[in-house]
User: Fold this.
Amino acid sequence: MDKTATIDRVWAIFGELNKIPRPSHHEEKVADYLCKFAVENGLDYSRDANNCVVIRKPATHGCEDWEPLVLLNHMDMVCVHDSNYEFNALEDPIVSEIHDGWMQAKGTSLGADNGIGLSIALALISDNSLRHGPLEVLTTTNEEDGMSGAANLGTDFIKGRKVINLDSEDFDTITVGAAGAYIQKAEWHFKLEEPDNSKKHLKLLLEGGKGGHSGVDIDKGRGNAIVILAKLLAQLKTTYTDLQIGELQGGSSAAAIAGNASANISADLLDKDLLTELGKTLIYPYTETDHQLTISVSEAPKRPLLSTEDSQRLIAAITSLPNGVIAMRDDMPGTVQTSNNIGLLKQTEGQVVLTTHTRSFCDKTMEEIGGKIATALKESGATVSLAANSPAWQENSESDFIKRVSDTFEGVLGFTPRKVAMHFVLEAGYYVRKYPGIEIACIGPRIVSPHSTSERVEMQTVEDLLKVTEHLISTQ
Assistant:
């Protein structure tokens, strides 16, 4: 297979993946696709109870004694869409567009995280012209919302102990460390009250926030629409002591900065103009980072609401939580050490759900902050459950394996990549615990604004990453 055909194959596979709905917790169809792909290419595969799939290919003649190599990716994606774009993440395909060498989706996140890495891995393992040792393509589920796929892999699911993780967004780097993740879900169950028809009923709508990855973009100063809405409600509560709230909605994922949020409110003397001005004051600090962020106030239908007391408790609980950067690393200037993100707010009748996503390179610190968050939420009457406690990971950046990956970039592309630790969680921490002696290098194409509708991938870097990965496979 010539090199042009291989890169064309990568884009063809990515196109196929983007026809398959694959939000976290709904990966059955893409797992089916991977198993079918293995069969069609005459490859052995295994699928576990969590829909994780490993595809295996024996070494080519003469390379049987090479050390096995694992290409690692995850099959789920964070599915977000613009508020004015009709999209069902469980049914609709991703529609991509190309502009000036960059691929982006129409109205939604693109799924380049981690669909591009998976497409490269599949293109290479199905290329029978390559010389290689034993190959495994491991694809896990629910990486974006708890990492339960990696956490529950069997200890014999893979054989290789040298892993190329193609789940990075920084093309000119090798990721050798990643923060841990502590994801919690709070649930309140409120008794709703019938609306008082003598009072005013308005809808507050924040929309157009840039959003983004709650790890990669957490230090960019972007506005979290849930936090801004909660601050606005807290201010209103001091003016309108009879304030009631309901129909709360905000964000789309624990792993994404909320770009949109809304609430219905009711009080005796609500002033639409005053509310609008207060909202504009709160979003003004984000003029540069979220230039399309707006607030609107409109008449709302008279529907059941939380009581005044429950409204106060909920507002106080949300505004008490940390959000954004908590600490920076001393040993790596510009790298976030610890952060927290309020990612999802959702009300269904009397049930209100809120998620928090704490990250840190120190597991102890992460768990301590997560514990304080849980305590604050429980004191407000919430039931709090732990969705994930994913360990941080730090590779030996001076190992022979990392040097081999770095030298490959130098030999193939002519530059030496930086070694970095990233403020997002990778599955590596689970593998280090599960598979003794494993070594992991994380590389990827250049992806901008993952987990948002601005997500885009630089196409030339995909081709360059393919060349690097192919060389790593073809040499020992």
About this structure: The longest strand covers residues 336-348. The chain has a mean pLDDT of 95. The longest helix spans residues 363-379. The chain has two domains: 3-179+392-474, 182-390.
